[in-house]
Design brief:
mainly alpha, disordered N terminus
Amino acid sequence: MIPERALTRSASPHTVGVTMSDARGLQGIRGWLLLVALGLCVQPLILLKTLRDNARAFEPETWRVLTMPGSRVYHPLWAPLLIAEVVVNAALLVGAAALLYLFCTTKRVFPRAVIAFMAASFAVTLADYAVTSAIPAARAQFTAKEAADIGRSALSAAIWIPYFLRSQRVAATFVH
């Protein structure tokens, strides 16, 4: 049952005037929220794979080649970039796990938390691209995949952030 306060809370002008029976029909993980659920389940797996892939840079020989002055691919940004990527991806993994919990328990804070997570993910993707492009050896390795990652992150934020701000189902579902 939807608490009365959920009906007075408005995520946007579109949720004003939602009646109790309308809200009950919109409550629950259905519709587009099923795609959100799928994404929230897959996101930690993607981040774990990224962390595993990044771990190769910390193998002694690779680390030495990247961070030792005088090596052919040395750049002073390699060490801080690699360490920052591990720290940020670990933080995103914790955030993704927290989002999954908030989603499954339909916590009221979930829509704001997922918006913040998406914005942070997009900012991290841009920052990573900017710093990586400052390293000549890394810039030479850029492929269409990196551009696609930025585009995918931007498109995801452009679609889902407005959805979480305007959706009547979101307003009716995340009320605890």
